[in-house]
Amino acid sequence: MIILRIILIVIGLPFIYYGFNILFRKKYNYINNYESDKKIGKVDEAYAKRIGAVELIGGKLCVILGIIAMFLEDRYTLYFFLISIGGIVISLGLNQFFFRKKVEQKNK
Fold this sequence. Notes:
mainly alpha; 4 helices; 81% helix
């Protein structure tokens, strides 16, 4: 289980890096097809900021839960791993779902 704790921390670090760069340094090229989608009006800067915020918060969550798991019993490690990874995936999925809904309403 120590390996799972380390993986949780290591997974969180790139999320923090990319989230920080997208949100604060405005490096939107980290988002797939952002520039081409922006040219055709499919996405805007608010979309990129939401992606950056989700990645930054998710990365912090992974690292913090990984560090907390170091001091707790082994059974909590798997729960923390599933919660943090699941939280990131669900957040990004919901963001994409609501964004598509917004774009469809905008195009009508």
